[in-house]
Amino acid sequence: MNHIFVPKSIILGGGALKEITNLLKSLEKNKPLIITDNNMVKLGIIKPLENYLNDFEIKYKIFKDTIPEPTSESILQAVDILKEGSFDSVIAFGGGSPIDSAKAISALASCGGNISDYKFPYIFNKETIPIIAVPTTAGTGSEVTKFTIITDEKTDEKMLCVGAGFMPTAAIVDYELSLTVPPRTTADTGIDALTHAIEAYVSKKANFFSDTQAMAAMKLIFPNLRAVYRNGNDKKAREKVMIGSTLAGMAFSNSSVALVHGMSRPIGANYHVPHGLSNAMLLPTVTDFSIAGSPLRYSECAKKMGIALENDSVDSANKKLIKALYVLNKDLDVPTPSQFGIKKEDFYNKLDVLSKQAIDSGSPGNNPIIPSHEQIKELYRKLWA
């Protein structure tokens, strides 16, 4: 038996943002706190949302000070604002970081405590101030997941927080909001979404529901990711990648992520590498390591993405998959750790810490092959090969 969690309402399609006022009305809410980041305000991307709210004289306030990798400190000001302002709802507008921030902010404002109290293995299932998530990137799937990730700035640990209490009440998935996303962010978030789909499918927690979403996501994301990287105005490709990202989010939220994500979070926390980019750095190497643990499932991924033919053998399909993932990184100009600016000596000196943080996240335990501490260290070393 599987307990499936999804938002109560998901509105999809170009121009879907205009439904925000109807959505608030259906939820009987009329005073939202908008949680976003400074770029959304500075670049005017949030302006249409404001216009829709203003047209219906809905009172709101904008908190724009979320940061790219949210920390336990960065969310505290917004927690106070939400508690003290008589707001009845939250609109999380932006990429994964504003949405993850909003989840943590709503939880703390509703239930108190410190965000470290909520980290896995604690499962947070309490009712919170409702969140309407409006993603502007196609990647994290945070608009449909029961997870948030917040960094403890004192230890550089990326804390995974899990539970139905972090699930947004509703999501508006409007691909038109992603048309202005720059190529680097498009690539990084797209590979993040692809990783969600692959890991959800090969996870030890996979189920029929998550399999269905994961396979549909892979079919949408992989064939269109290069197109949106090369031409951000390709609306058909943007829509497919955006919907694929949401499906991938539903898949891993109801299955799990695995070793790529477990190893990715420590790189992000210790070296400030964007989450999708650190996933991209790891995906080919970790997949090559993991494939022996679930060869049939990985081969099915290759076939669904159009990398392998239906009549290819399992072994042939998997060889094509590994090659295709390395080529994808090359085509999307994914930098190596060294090219990103990470110093090899410092990285090697932290291997024990990185490996421990990866294991402590819980995600490696869902992998087709559960790695040891030493095996994770060796996989980190392979990034420099």
Characterise the protein shown here.
This protein is an alpha/beta fold and 385 residues long. 51% of the residues lie in helices and 10% in strands. It has 16 helices and eight strands. The strands form two sheets. Strands 1-8-5-4-2-3 form a six-stranded parallel sheet, covered by helices on one side.
Keywords:
385 residues; alpha/beta; six-stranded parallel β-sheet; 8 strands; 51% helix; globular
What's the structural blueprint in terms of helices and strands?
Blueprint: E1 9-12, H1 20-26, E2 32-35, H2 38-42, H3 47-55, E3 61-63, H4 76-84, E4 89-94, H5 96-111, E5 131-135, E6 147-152, E7 157-162, E8 170-173, H6 183-202, H7 208-230, H8 235-253, H9 259-271, H10 275-290, H11 295-304, H12 314-331, H13 337-340, H14 344-349, H15 351-360, H16 373-382
Parallel strand pairs: 1-8, 2-3, 2-4, 4-5, 5-8
Antiparallel strand pairs: 6-7
